[in-house]
Amino acid sequence: MGSAVLKVLVLLLVIAYCTLFVFWNGQYVTVVGLDLWWGRYVQDMPLGFLALIGAVLGAVVMAIFVWGEWAQQKARADRAAGQVAQAKAKLQKLADIIKQHRQEIAQLKQQAPEEPSAEQAESEAGEQDAP
Asked: Does the predicted model carry a pTM greater than 0.90?
């Protein structure tokens, strides 16, 4: 909420400065808007408007170029997110397979009678040989 209020205050300050800038530069100049062979569109306007119009047009052009770059970055990020999702799905599938195999191993251990391992058999055989 505080950041929204701050943004509004900054925008109000910018608008107030632009208004004062137009009043400070109030001399009228003749601006030719369109010059064709059959006629000319001419408008008298304050000098301050020319600077503001230039700034607005510049901001629009920059926004168009920035939008293109942003769209490319967003496409790359979406592609990377898709790859991460595929990797997570594959990892989950492998984890499920491992879990299933562990359950099968546990079932087999419960079903099979306990057989002594090779080391236990040798140690028992060695104990029987010794009187």
From this structure: no
